[in-house]
Amino acid sequence: MSAEQDAIDERIQDAGERGDLDELRRLADGGSSDAADQLIETATELGALDELRRLAAGGNRDAADQLAELTEE
């Protein structure tokens, strides 16, 4: 794994721990599937339905599934 990828992975982990949806969104929009996964996980933990709706509207099935689970409760 490259040093650049290591740095991105560290930024993803740090942003997830801080609940920083903006940073995770930037990384995900930059093409990081790991950031997208962390964004969904963090948005789910925070109950950030708007973020999950945005991702689901963009075609992200995992976000759509999480949104469905959160909104059926």
Key attributes of the depicted protein:
73 residues, mainly alpha
Outline the structure in words.
The chain is an all-alpha fold. It contains 5 helices and no strands. The chain is elongated. The mean pLDDT is 95.
In short:
The chain is mostly helical and 73 residues long. 82% of the residues lie in helices and 0% in strands. It has helices at residues 3-18, 21-29, 33-46, 49-57, 61-72.
How is the topology of this model organized?
Blueprint: H1 3-18, H2 21-29, H3 33-46, H4 49-57, H5 61-72
Helix pairs in contact: 1-2, 1-3, 2-3, 4-5
Strand content: under 5%
Mean pLDDT: 95
Largest sheet: none
The helix tally amounts to 5
Q: Termini, distance in Å? A: 40 Å
What is the share of helical residues? over 70%
Cα-based radius of gyration, to the nearest Å: 12 Å
**Segments where pLDDT lies below 50 for 5+ residues?**
none
> How many E strands?
0
Note the overall shape.
elongated
Q: Spell the H/E element sequence.
A: HHHHH
Structural class: mainly alpha
